[in-house]
Amino acid sequence: MNPKSHQILFHSPELRIPLQSVTLSFVSDRTLSHLKHSLFNVSPQFVSSFYFTLNGKPLLDETPLLTTQFAPFSTLLLRSRLFGGGGDGGATGAESRDCYLNMYAEKKPDKVDPNEQRLSKWLNCALSNEPLREPCVIDNLGNIFNKVALVEALIGKKLPKEFGHIKGLKDMINVKLDLIPGVDDGISGAKFQCPIAGLEFNGKYRFFALRNCGHVLSAKASKEVKSSCCLVCHKEFEELDKIVINGNDEEVVVLRERMSKTTKEKKKKKMMIKKVKNGNVDVDDDGVSLEGKRLSGTKHGVDDKAVAKVEGNGRVGLKGVSDVAAKRFKATDIAPANATKDVYASIFTSSRKSDFKETYSCRSLPLGRN
């Protein structure tokens, strides 16, 4: 061996290159890049994907072969670069914070098909979500139910809060749905229709139920055939008897206000009937309470014994006075002694307008207004 040269060894398990030796001369200016090109007769881009390591440390391609770190018989290892994950500057995806956060982000619920949601609302029971089947009922807000499922929930006290306004059978309205001819229970589509217009009961058209007879009609049929009677049974109804089925938010608000108003009126009427039965309230022939309207006591010169009392049938009567006279009763009839009837009547009626007519010119005359 030339004393001015020495040998180094190299190999590559990845490329299946066995251990080989290279003789280095001290006058040579070759680098590791020249050594790689001598091993591969391919494009420079392919050669750049490999690098040498010495004792586990990577070496630059510009490192000269005649360097003090290459001792005689040093062993170099030729390895391939791992782009995109080898810590060599390639993109790994971990640099993006969004990729890390998306791993723990909550998954958004899948979008619900609006058509499926509409069909489910119109074809199924609002409580049990089972297909509608006779007998069916609706509540005062237009929700439609299978009557059996609703009654069972009431008995078991398992009604959700959204249906808390349903207290019993009085809050249910039996409805009569017209079945489409030839439709079986196994079909998943619409099973009912408008008996007049033939429109399917599937949510594409507005439907309402009549409170007094229970028939379900489409709004289109009611618009085309305007009538104050049911188009099926010809029973008369009022506009307030219409209950929109599965209405929008605005229609539900109107129905809720109507329901609240009706409930208050029923409670008030029930309390009034209870007071009348107990004899605590006087009523007139129309059932209107006279409490707070009747004059009594010595202040107005009215004898309490002569005041009307509630009889057993709830009518008002005066002792010794016929029914006709009781209806024509006036305050002046019981005026105090030595009192002028006109003056006494003015306490309960508005004063008469004076015959004097005020003009612009007479406003300066204080006596004229008196």
From TrEMBL:
GO terms for biological process: DNA replication termination. It holds the Pfam family Rtf2. CDD domains: RING-like_Rtf2 (cd16653). GO terms for cellular component: nucleus. It comes from the Eukaryota. PANTHER family: PROTEIN C20ORF43 HOMOLOG, REPLICATION TERMINATION FACTOR 2. This is Replication termination factor 2. It comes from Lupinus luteus.
